[in-house]
Known about the structure:
The structure holds two protein chains of two kinds.
Chain A (H helix, E strand, L loop, with lengths): L1 H43 L4 E6 L9 H13 L4 E6 L6 H12 L4 E4 L5 H10 L4 E5 L8 E6 L1 H15 L4 E6 L4 H17 L4 E6 L6 H13 L4 E5 L4 H9 L2 E6 L10 E7 L2 H13 L7 E4 L6 E3 L8 H15 L10 E2 L5 E3 L7 H5 L8 E2 L4
Helix pairs in contact in A: 2-9, 3-4, 5-6, 5-10, 7-8
Chain B lengths: L4 E5 L7 H23 L4 H13 L2 H26 L7 H18 L5 H30 L3 H21 L33 H18 L1 H9 L3 H6 L4 H28 L10 H11 L4 H25 L3 H18 L1 H4 E5 L5
Antiparallel strand pairs in B: 1-2
Amino acid sequence: MKQFTRFFIAALACTAMLMSLFACGEAPKKADEKAEKNAAEKKEDAKKFKAGFVYVSPVGDAGYSYAHDMGRQAVQDLGWVETSFVESVAEGADSERVIRNMARKGFDVIFTTSFGYMDPTLKVAEEFPNVKFMHCSGFKKSANMDNYFGRMYQARYLTGLVAGAMTKSNIIGYVAAFPIPEVIRGINAFTLGVREANPKAEVRVVWTKTWYDPALEKDAAISLLDVGADIIAQHQDSPGPQEAAQERGVYSIGYNSDMASFAPKAHLTAAIWNWGSLYVETVKEVRDGTWKGDQAIWWGMDKGIVDLAPYGDMVPEDVRKMVDAKKAEIKSGKDIVFAGPIKNQKGEVAIPEGQSASDEQLLGMTWFVEGVVGTTE
Amino acid sequence: MLTGFKLRKRDEPWKWGALVIFLGALLISLLISAFLLEGQGKSAIDGLFILWDGSFGHVWALEGALLKAVPIFLCSLGVAISFRMQIWNIGAEGQFALGAIGATWMALSFPHLHWTLLMPLMFIMAFLLGGLWAGIPAALKLKLKVNEIISTLMLNYIAILLLDYLVFGIWKDPSSYGFPMTPKFSENARILGMFGSSVHWGVALCVAVGAAFWAFMRYTRLGYELKASGQGPRVAKYAGMPYGFLVMFVMCMSGGLAGWAGCVEVAGTTGRLEPSLMVGYGYTAIVVAWLARLEPLNIAFASFLLAALRVGVENLQLELQIPAAFGEIMEGMILLSVLAGQFFLTYKLERRKLSD
């Protein structure tokens, strides 16, 4: 009996092995045929233009990568571009491999959308001089690599105006990811807006040290609500803080995309990305051969790359009018956000009257303006 | 369902059992994955081929997997040595961070030192800091009877915060516009590719360390004592073995190996210390160690296969536009089915006799 069992198991194992071998032998054959067919099709329509996107988080989060993916879809909708993306790619070594894989597969232009992809993008760009690279939010560039970003601080400033006009406790909470210039700049612009609408209000900052962690972001928002904040703003990629505000019956300001659907009763407005405008322009340039390398692209609201989400019903008419007037001014190309005099947290004048912060100052901003409660560490 | 069968404990070990179970579990997981792909409206045959192509189909794919396997292997070997002695070191992640910090410290302090001096210095410091970090829970366990599972886990968070503190603070590159990262290492502090390929010397280090680990466990008295003490402190003490010393020793070795993984990552792949270095290799290592049943050669295979799977899934994502979570689901299924399959190493199904 025992012998038979053994034989039976051995036979079963052999059959399984044989079947798997057969399956393995079969699969590549079929796939090869398919590949040949694909190649033939490709020859037919004279190589389709391909644009690749690398995201740091999942696209379904209504946050940062979601906003970039809306941009990708705008490119896809052009009809003559084939787009593809890889999401949740860790910065560092993993991203280099993903970017190189894209370059190897003949993508014409590759958008790498997170700061940590900067060095890997540059490295792969050197290896593939014929592929165009667009790196978001960094500062390095080369003959076939541009860096790009949007002046999100303009939209932040406008949301600050809304928050300043709507707060009653004069405490506004700001859930922020990392103390890097991009985030600090946003907090400063927001605070300048808040103080312009309401000089008595202050903005309290909590650092989460994460871009995407719904539970932690929500907890951070709750800690701000506990100290009396009645509006929650965020530089985070999940709608967690919005939900926290709605649960407490107070207001919130979203980021990345229109987050109204997550907290309809709380959501006043949001500072949103509209990457499509830049992405569509870029692929057209690459196709027409007018694309230039070695550029640092920093578009503002006048080009439509950043915007304000529609106001919630609770935002009164006079507030809308006031903010819309400022928005029109910015849209006409006047960058009024960091116009002096601006004081730092100690009350010293950091940007004197008659001057405005230079791009250099904005990109390296590591200090808070007056009205922010918190440290840049 | 199984009325015709009964479970029986095996009288003797199943010779090729581990292999059969592994292949069977892999087959089952791939089949389920194929169904999931079909469920999303993608062709399963294409999917499996693309996965294969991305993992093993090209030299560069293999190189990518090999490089990704290096930190997993070193961390995993580290935790395996402590698990052998039933000391539960969950802190490879933190020890990895400390190793990276140690290597960075040397690289930033002596950038002009010739690599023949700087490289050993980096590895020594990485081993020391990683080992010390693991020594803390060992001391707490011996002196105060603090459970090492808790203390090693907690020290992970402290280590990561320490790394953050350094790159956001005193080690921040002044020319980085305030972004958290150290300056790039000098060429002397970089681990280069072997024979002009993209596969760096960290792979050779893994082979050497793996062989040393195997020889140590098999041929030395200390190795024997470690295995014996795994049966419990009282057994070890009764046999006259220095249990306290052994605990300290395995933890420091374990931490030191994870520290080396951190050193190889900063010197071999990123070339600088940055927060994105921490992607959870220390936790992956624990799963790999169990999967490989604590055997060095198995650990090598398991690290490589897991790395290859992760690399292949990137290809799958790119070609078929499936969500990243699909890769995690696949990985989870493979791990779960292999571990669950271990059951059949100790038990077997036997047909009921008519008389039963």
